[in-house]
């Protein structure tokens, strides 16, 4: 905690004064253009990777950058997506996976998760990712392959959310994979607009 407190002090003394005008404007609200869904991994910092200023990204971070398919009931991820799309009016959504993802490693290597039942339950949202990756590999997928297939599966899950379907005519979806050791960002296909809701 000492390091965090020292960081706050540096922010208040050096960073905040240099951006005081920006923060004054943000005090009244924010209009980010992009919803950025990434892994909770401490090595993945969306604002740093994209060179974004405060207020430019609306960020949701989950273990494995997982987006559960829409289902009625309380869901923090669904609420964040709905707020970004329906209230803030973002025009783009990025689902960003990354190299050496712990969640995807656990799945690819069939780690024993019996002592961490909450993690095991959460990673069931990647079942479609595993099925996609296994079909593509013809055998047990590598971590890298699973990371990529997982991004595509989460984009498909994202499209099940009513707020995303209703905004299909103005939203563009992107799948990215960030490589930690090189800083490279790969954009995956398919990208584009989600399916429009049925009339």
From TrEMBL:
Catalyzes the reversible hydration of carbon dioxide to form bicarbonate. Reversible hydration of carbon dioxide. Belongs to the beta-class carbonic anhydrase family. This is Carbonic anhydrase. SMART domains: Pro_CA (SM00947). The keyword Transmembrane does not apply. It comes from Streptomyces lydicus. It catalyses: hydrogencarbonate + H(+) = CO2 + H2O. Binds 1 zinc ion per subunit. One of its GO terms (biological process) is carbon utilization. Zn(2+) binds at residues 39, 41, 98, 101. InterPro entries: Carbonic_anhydrase (IPR001765), Carbonic_anhydrase_CS (IPR015892), Carbonic_anhydrase_sf (IPR036874). One of its GO terms (molecular function) is zinc ion binding. Signal peptide: none annotated. Keywords: Lyase, Metal-binding, Zinc. Its cofactor is Zn(2+). Its EC number is 4.2.1.1.
